[in-house]
Amino acid sequence: MTMPNGDSGWVFEASGLKKEYEDGQVQALRGVDFQIQQGEFIAIVGPSGSGKSTLLQMLGALDYPSAGTLKYRGDSLAHRTDLASYRAHEIGFIFQAFHLLPTFTALENVQIPMFETHRAASERKHRAIELLKAVGLETRLHHFPAKLSGGERQRVAIARSLANGASVLLADEPTGNLDSENAELILNLIVSLRREQKLTLILVTHDRGISSQAARIIEMKDGRIVSDAFNQAPT
Amino acid sequence: MTFFTVVTRGLMRRPVRTGLTIVGIAIGIAAVVALVGISRGFETSWETGMKSRGTDIVVSSMRNALTPKPFNATVAERIAPLPHVAETCALLVDLISVEKADMMIVSARQWGGFSWKNLKIVSGRLPNDGAERAVVLGQTAAEVLGKKVGDTLQLETEDLAVVGTVDGGAVVENGSVILSLPLFQEITGNQDKINVIDLRVTPGTAKEELTRLCEQINGLVPEARAVIAGEHIRDSQAYRMISAMSWGTSLLAVLVGVLGVMNTMLMTVLERTQEICVLLAIGWTRSRIVRMILWESALLGFLGGVVGALIGVVGVKVLVTTPAIRGLLEPQLNPPLLVLAVAIAVVVGVISGLYPAWRSSRFTPSHALHG
Fold first, then answer.
1. Per-residue confidence at A5, pLDDT binned at 50, 70, 90?
2. Which residues, other chains included, contact B3 with Cβ-Cβ below 8 Å and sequence gap of 6+?
3. Which of A98, A104, B195, B321 sees the fewest Cβ atoms within 10 Å?
């Protein structure tokens, strides 16, 4: 399908993107092409093993493609030497299993990514408090992850993903470990933050109910995009 | 929260394991402090003893033994006429079991020689002459042996009168049984034998002239060796062997500490694989991960070093109060040694952390999405 190219240009452009493991015996991505515009809300859906998480890894520069090109704002990620800086400043990651550090409080977990910025300790703390307030955890600042509910942990993880002012949020099954009530709350929080901060949100999910809220749905199967369409009526 | 907070939290994840690792390093460092402190103390004690006797050059034959080998007493007469020699005092010194003390310095001195003159009488008197069957005891020796003026002391098979207690101004002197040279020669059957000559030079003799005098003596009396006072212990092969063994044992203990820290850090890295991958995924650089691991292992080393230095100091303080050692040496537990010990521990920590840090730097951030 032809993608709209607004004034801000493409955030991501993928062309012939492939990813192979074990010397080509496993082909996770078999030539993927797409463009993503700033501010889009995209759901990537598909069965297990369809390549959606691998695609998210490529977008987050957590792994290298085996072939093809992936550009971020016009520059090929393969040519960037500062991928850690890209992950720290451009991308916010939300994981299904939250992945908070267990020996750090909620407030400290949110400060962790900020070590890669040149903010002073007091400034880091101030920003972390503001972010935790934004996700409704102002009363849980000094709680360790073990003392937080699943929904609260994911809210800490969302605050952490926004710590360095990312413009793209990559979420891998962000509600997969939550009950339906918390899942809805978390999804609403992510969607409202996206809207407020004009973020690009790329969300991997099995859940058709969640993907139905996205403005665009990319469906994958066997490492290929089998459908890429705008959702005519996002819920 | 600072980066140091991150480092300390890493260690606090497994407090028992961290504590045991610190104990492992501490034992190694305590061994360094104790053995090297005692070894250096041995050297210093003898050096101070020499200085308190006013000795400038020591002529002896230390070789492989802790006490010098005997040689003929006429050596003192051959040395006396040399230029810059003001006085000589012949001695027969031995480390032997005396009554309930397993090891005690017995220092028999040429009667009337200058080595008697530094002794300050604390109680009683000095022997009346070289033939009197009497001893004086250094203060510590008197305490260790439980003797006072008027008691009898059995030396080899002879009962000798304790006529005085003295302050010799040095640990070695105060830990000695002191008597006249002819009496000890007779008791031990070493007539005409001595094993040390204390030599005092004329005032104003320069260091170079002392060195030259030593060379002259060494040319003149091949059966003994002249060394500037304070250096004669270092010149002893036995002392050098003890010193080398001290360092060798210490390094072995430290090596065990290295393996302990490496094991702990490797386990912590492997346990935290996913955590490290998450840190990489949220933007931490590999160099920051490496620094985190190295700081953790350095901190382990530092804590082990501090605890080890404390254990070493306390251990040695307790050790020198035991009857077997009391009065024989004054351990050198000075700040430079303690700083050196802690520095060794920190270096051990950093070296031990290198491999785990390298392993951690090879993790791929994509693992963060698994599990």
1. very low
2. A115, B291, B292, B295
3. B321
The answer for B192, left when phi > 0, alpha when psi is -120 to 50, beta otherwise, is left
Q: Is the ipTM of this complex over 0.85?
A: yes
DSSP label of A213: T
**Shortest CA distance to A137 belongs to which of A102, A98, A181, A105?**
A105
Q: Tell me if A42 is assigned to some domain.
A: yes
Q: Is the Cβ pair B283, A113 closer than 8 Å?
A: yes
The pLDDT of residue B272 is 85
Contacts of B364 in chain A (CB under 8 A): 62-63
- Two tokens at B19? 């504590």
Contact assessment for residue B150 and residue B142, using Cβ atoms and an 8 Å cutoff? no
The alpha carbon torsion through B260, B265, B271, B277 (nearest 10 deg) reads -170
Q: What is the mean pLDDT of residues B145-173?
A: 91
What is the rounded average pLDDT for all residues in chain B?
A: 87
A229, β-bridge pairs: A217
- Full residue range of the structural domain in which residue A117 is found: 38-58+81-230
Determine the Cα–Cα distance for residues A77 and B112; give it in Å rounded to an integer: 93
| Residue A24: strand, helix, or coil | coil
Q: Are B131 and B181 in contact (CB under 8 A)?
A: no
Give the residue-averaged pLDDT of B173-192.
92
At B296-355, the pLDDT tens digits run 999 999 999 999 999 999 998 888 887 766 666 678 888 999 999 999 999 988 998 899
A24 part of a folded domain: no
Q: How far, in Å, CA of B223 to CA of B238, rounded?
A: 18
Q: Report how far residue A178's alpha carbon sits from residue A146's, in angstroms, rounded to the nearest whole number.
A: 15
Cβ pairs A/B, distance under 8 A: 82
Chain A: closest CA distance from residue B280 (Å): 7
Q: Which of B296, B258, B300, B339 is nearest to B28 (CA)?
A: B258
Give residue B32's pLDDT.
85
Question: pLDDT tens digits, residue range A106-136?
Answer: 999 999 999 988 889 999 999 999 999 999 8
Asked if the Cβ–Cβ distance from A121 to B1 is below 8 Å, we say yes
Residues B102 and B324: beta-carbon distance below 8 Å: yes
> What CATH number is associated with residue A186?
3.40.50.300
Model pLDDT for residues B1-11, shown as the tens digit of each residue: 899 999 999 88
* Residue A69 located in a structural domain: no
pLDDT of residue A1: 42
**For testing contact with chain B, the best of A81, A115, A170 (most B CBs within 10 A):** A115
For residues A156 and A129, the answer to whether their CB atoms sit within 8 Å is no
Instruction: List phi, psi (to 5°) of A19.
Output: -140, 125
Domain boundaries, chain B: 3-44+239-369, 55-228
- C-alpha span between B91 and B181 (Å, rounded): 6
Pairing of strands B134-138, B176-180: antiparallel
Q: Is A15 on the interface with B (CB under 8 A)?
A: no
User: What is the identity of the amino acid at B151?
Assistant: D
From residue A3, alpha-carbon distances to A230, A231, B300 in Å are: 10, 13, 56
Most B-contacting residue of A21, A53, A95, A98 (CB-CB within 10 A), to test interface: A95
